[in-house]
Amino acid sequence: MQLSGQLSGKTAIVTGSNSGIGLGVAVELARQGADIVLNSFTDRAEDHALAERIGAEHGVKARYIKADMSVGEDCRALVRQAGGCDILVNNAGIQHVAPVEDFPVEKWNAILAINLSSAFHTTAAALPGMRERGWGRIVNIASAHGLTASPFKSAYIAAKHGVVGLTKTVALETAGQGITANAICPGYVLTPLVEAQIPDQMKVHDMDRETVIREVMLLRQPSRQFATVEEIGGTAAFLCSPAAAQITGTTISVDGGWTAL
Length: 261
Ligand code: NAD
Known about the structure:
The protein is α/β, with parallel strands linked by helices.
């Protein structure tokens, strides 16, 4: 399917997009012709340089706006500073692993704020402009953990289930208005964050790279293959395409079969 250029004239905000999945989604939307707003909580020269590079490579406007997604007012200010958006990708997220009775309260609060509440704030700020223009695409990056659970990830799983619920509610509130809201639920995706865990896992389990990936990290992913940031980007672009105009309030799993088990 040839999709190139179909998003020209649209502006996309991607939260948490100076690395990993957010960056992959931003690059794919730029490839489709969308102007891009990259975001994270840092304000380094390299963050702005990344936006410049994406703009130059794809012939679109691209800029970087610093905003801390753990702070509600920052989330809303991001949308205001961007001048609104046609496409909103809520991607920023963090993780912490601990049994529920030992789960540090500040980690619980941070995960709920960054992984869930930020999507509420950005969506609330972006919707009026989308309604005025009669077109909008909200793509929330949830997780296989938005649909299933694993031990020791209480905050992450509560937040990701919350994102799925928020997605459905926003879809109902915008139905028939040219706006859709959907959640992508990735399984394990090979991002720099995940890549960095491989050497430690190799040591702990005394296994080579391929074995630790197959037998430890991807134990619950039946394909035994990572999803890629390009695949998540492609799924987000599909949700923004004309073919997806009636897809709203749903989840799309990109998880190698994890949630089919
Ligand atoms: P990552 O750490 O590479 O990316 C997270 C991004 O969020 C970074 O750009 C980071 O700077 C940003 N971020 C963190 N805290 C922030 C804050 N307070 N304000 C603004 N930005 C902030 O990780 P990733 O793997 O690319 O994860 C991206 C999203 O995908 C997350 O929501 C994660 O839960 C989800 N996800 C990842 C996987 C996976 O296997 N990698 C699987 C399922 C879902």
